[in-house]
Amino acid sequence: MRNHEVVIYEQIHGRTLLTVYEVSRVAGLHPELVRRLFVMGLIDPHVAQPEPLFEDSVVGRIRKIMRLRNDLGVNLSGCGVVLELLERINQLEQRLRHYEQMKAG
To answer: What is the pTM for the complete model shown?
Structure first.
């Protein structure tokens, strides 16, 4: 397996922004699949025009999507629902911890 060099397109406010091709290389996916994830709204670019540029953190989200798809058989639309629910659970857990700290202190 060959290692590919990733060319960072731009850094804005300390954020590393990657093109679709760079994201695809890092995630190990075909660029068309990355574009499909973008079109379906499963990943959001930091900058949309003139071409979509993604924060490097999007690779972790893509890996979650691919695990749901490949390991659990969840279709891409279902992956979006699962990820939204997981994010909502995380927010609720953070709020609960905050209220528990306020109650204790």
So the answer is: 0.77
